[in-house]
Each structure stands twice: as structure tokens, then as C-alpha cells.
Design a protein that fits this description.
single chain; alpha/beta; Rossmann fold; formyl-coa transferase, domain 3; 2 domains; 7-stranded mixed beta sheet; 3-stranded antiparallel beta sheet; elongated
């Protein structure tokens, strides 16, 4: 018996741009859902977020838009709105990241959509949610990161807070949205009903404050800005070595003793300032000074081999190139390539390793409007109607741009 992908047969309308929504729908596409990406005539904004390009296509766009079809649709046009409503009437999931109220004005609010399709799961992903005093604030990764409190702790004392090297607030929000969507799909098997998901990027990123929020609850004080260090464990951070840096995580008292032995510093094991984790956290600055004094005498590679042999969690700070060339990444098929309408391109593999129905990279990120015509044929439009829509600029395809 053939194994179908886990989300085989599910139809998803993707009205999202940038990162948060597109990564969520891409991951559903990896798992076999039929993703229809609805783009404005100018395309997803990230098609122009370049350089760099790969074969003339924005690398940013390529990163989160595989396994999708593309229809380019003018939603300001009544006929474009009609097409959207027809697609929504046949979909299992609709995901949008417009500002609150935008789709209401186009006649496709959740209330409108569920009248035609009671089983529709309709996910609105926005910066601040569909209600509350900040609902109309524009939200991008950096501003949500700042508003959530996360940016304040991603810093070193006395230095400017810095964003993460990828749009982590967007990515977290997309993953939370996926959890909600898949939960709603399961609940639909019981109730037979769809529902509206109000996914706020602020809510999602506030949630991942986790122990840092509880540290505040416990003390009434804002956490220290510790850079790479852990607020409740030491040593657990990036350290300077004789030639570069190393990440080190000594998370238990047993590991602490093994660690001290591995670097030839048994004198630290029962030191009055460092003998247990609470003392090491309290005296973190002195501990770092002692350790970096020792680490400065050797290279990152030598230290890492010692730690690996002793079973101590540690890693060199890989560049992107080194991460891509990492033999473990290669062994897990996390980098591959595929032939596309714009040439052969490298792509990242799917993280979903499942025994019967693993995630797959089966379709290249689409050209703008690449699937407009085939999608319209599928929902009943004739060739004459499609040509009229193209002529009037309601839809775009690679041939009429």
C-alpha cells in the first residue's frame, strides 16, 4: 500500500508575504499539502529583497517558498476577489498576514468565508493580533522582537541590543501558527467545524521569554544582559580561545567535575567560588576570567577534541559555509539541489524525518504566477475566461508580465 504524505489532500491558500507566513506554509508543503500562493501582480515583496540573487531570483524568496504553486491575482479587482472567494470555498486552510481588517474590506473575512466553507481553518497572522490597543501597529520581525522583550536580553551589558542573524520572531510565529493550524485540523475531525486562528507575533514571541519572564516574576528585576551566557547555568556561553571562540555548555555538577579535569583545572572543582552551580552563576565574571586564562593557551580545535572525548557539550562557532559543509548536515540530506525553470539551484532539505511519510522537497519556488492558469482551470474557468482575465490584468502568468 502506497504511503501518502501526512498532509496529502489538504488544500492551503497562502496569502502571506515576507517570512512568518511563508515559512509556515512551506513546512506544510514539505509534508504534502497542496499550497497555492496568492501573490499581488508585483509579487511577494521578498522577490525584490536582493541582492543576493540565485540565477536572477531573490535568495530570500527562494528560502521559504518551495513546494508551492503561484497564482498572481489583483485583489483590488472585483473579478480577482471572486476568484479568491472560489478558491477559499474549496480550501481546508487559509493563511493571511494582512493588517487586521484588510480582508474584511475585500469581502473575505472569516465570517464571510465560513458561510461558504464551514470547515475552513482560517489563520490570521499579524504583528499584534486582531484586537487590543496595538492591533493596528505595523509589525515586522525587528519591531516585534523589541516589543516582546526579547531584544532587550539579546545584548551584552552596556552595549546595543542586536537582532538575531535570521528573522527569529517571524520564524517562531510561523511555527506557532503551524501548531495552531494542525491542532485545529485534528479538532475538525471531531467537530466537523473549522475555526478562526488569531495568531499574534507578539504573543508568540512573548511566550518564548519562558524562564526569563519567570526570573522577573521571581525577583522583580529585569534580567542581566549576558550576551551568549545562560542566566541560570555557568559555565554556559561562548568563550575566547587562543585562536578563536568556542561554545561550551556545562549543565550538571557531574559535568563540572569532568570538565575541570579535562582542562587540567582540578583546583576549580571544589573552589569556594565555583563548587556548585549557584556559586558559579553568582561569580560568573571571575569564572570566565579563570577559564579564558586557561583557554588562551590552546586552540579551539584542541579544546573541542578534549571536550568531545570527555562527553562535554561544546562546539566551534561554524560559519555558514562550515555549517553547509558539515558532514552531519550532509548525512541528514539537509542540503540538496534541484532543476528549476531558472536553472539548477541549491535548496535546503526537509527537517521532517519520518519512517513512512518523510517531508520532501518536490517543487521549486515558483515563478510569479507560474500556476495561475492551471489553478483557474481546476476551479472551472474556461480558456476564454482565463484569456480575458490575463488581458485585463486580473491575473498574471510568466507569459503576460
Amino acid at each position: 500500500m502506497e504511503n501518502h504524505p501526512p498532509l496529502h489532500g489538504l488544500k492551503v491558500l497562502d496569502l502571506t508575504q515576507a517570512m512568518a507566513g511563508p515559512i509556515a506554509t512551506m513546512l506544510m508543503g514539505d509534508l504534502g499539502a497542496d499550497i497555492i500562493k496568492i501573490e499581488p501582480p508585483t509579487g511577494d515583496q521578498t522577490r525584490t529583497w536582493a541582492p543576493p540573487f540565485i540565477n536572477g531570483i531573490s535568495a530570500y524568496f527562494l528560502s521559504v517558498n518551495r513546494n508551492k504553486k503561484s497564482i498572481s491575482l489583483d485583489l483590488k479587482s472585483p473579478r480577482g476577489q471572486e476568484i479568491l472567494r472560489k478558491l477559499a470555498s474549496r480550501a481546508d486552510i487559509l493563511m493571511e498576514n494582512f493588517r487586521p481588517g484588510t480582508l474584511d474590506r475585500l469581502g473575505l473575512s472569516y465570517e464571510d468565508a465560513q458561510k461558504e466553507n464551514p470547515g475552513l481553518i482560517y489563520c490570521s497572522l499579524s504583528g499584534y493580533g486582531q484586537d487590543g490597543p496595538q492591533r493596528d501597529w505595523p509589525g515586522y520581525d525587528l519591531t516585534v522582537l523589541a516589543n516582546s522583550g526579547l531584544l532587550s536580553i539579546n545584548a551584552e551589558e552596556g552595549r546595543t541590543p542586536i537582532k538575531f542573524g535570521v528573522p527569529i520572531a517571524d520564524i517562531v510565529s510561523g511555527m506557532f501558527a503551524n501548531t495552531a493550524i494542525l491542532s485545529a485540523l485534528y479538532e475538525r475531525t471531531i467537530s466537523g467545524k473549522g475555526q478562526h486562528i488569531d495568531m499574534s507575533m507578539l504573543d508568540a514571541n512573548f511566550t518564548i521569554l519562558t524562564h526569563q519572564a519567570f526570573n522577573y516574576f521571581a525577583t522583580g528585576k529585569n534580567p542581566r544582559k549576558l550576551g551568549s551566557a545562560h542566566s541560570s547555568i555557568a559555565p554556559y556561553q561562548v568563550f575566547r580561545t587562543g585562536d578563536s571562540f568556542i561554545a561550551l555548555a556545562v549543565g550538571t555538577e557531574k559535568l563540572w567535575k569532568v570538565f575541570c579535569r579535562s582542562i587540567g583545572r582540578d583546583d576549580l572543582t571544589d573552589h569556594e567560588l565555583f563548587s556548585e552551580n549557584a556559586l558559579r552563576v553568582q561569580n560568573r565574571d571571575k569564572l570566565v576570567e579563570e577559564l579564558e586564562k586557561t583557554f588562551s593557551k590552546t586552540t579551539t580545535s584542541e579544546l573541542f577534541q578534549k571536550f568531545l572525548k570527555a562527553g562535554i557539550p561544546a562546539a566551534p562557532i561554524n560559519t555558514i559555509e562550515e555549517a553547509i559543509e558539515n558532514p552531519q548536515i550532509k548525512a541528514r540530506n539537509m542540503v540538496t539541489s534541484m532543476d528549476t525553470p531558472y536553472g539548477k539551484i541549491p535548496v535546503m532539505g526537509s527537517p521532517f524525518k519520518m519512517s513512512r511519510t518523510p517531508g520532501k522537497v518536490s517543487k521549486a519556488p515558483p515563478q510569479l504566477g507560474e500556476d495561475s492558469e492551471s489553478i483557474l482551470v481546476e476551479i472551472g474557468y474556461s480558456r476564454e475566461e482565463i484569456e480575458s482575465l490575463k488581458k485585463d490584468g486580473v491575473i498574471m502568468s510568466p507569459g503576460n508580465q
